[in-house]
Design goal:
- The protein is mostly helical and 75 residues long.
- The chain has one domain.
- The protein is 25% helix and 5% strand.
- Strands 1-2 form a two-stranded antiparallel sheet.
- The longest helix is centred in the last third of the chain and has 15 residues.
- It is globular.
- The chain starts with 10 loop residues before the first strand and ends with a helix.
- About 15% of the residues have low confidence.
Length: 75
């Protein structure tokens, strides 16, 4: 049985502390978050921020909650 390759976490969710893989930080072609509706600005990739720190992302569960809350508030 072939298991999919697990890619290492690149970020920690500032809301819940869960580890996650941010495609932008990891240099992937696209991040999983690109599939969600755009409801807030996307952080800059590492090396572009003034203090050269990595982008801060929310985990899939928290970003889904935030997206749902913002979409519901705007309707």
């Amino acid at each position: 049985m072939n298991l999919p390759e697990l890619k290492p976490d690149t970020s920690v969710c500032p809301r819940c502390g869960a580890g996650l893989r941010c495609g932008m930080v990891a240099g992937d072609a696209e991040c999983w978050c690109a599939q969600l509706p755009l409801v807030m600005p996307v952080p800059s990739p590492a090396g572009v921020l003034p203090d050269n720190s990595a982008a801060s992302c929310f985990c899939p569960a928290c970003l889904k909650k935030i997206t749902d809350e913002r979409l519901n508030a705007s309707s």
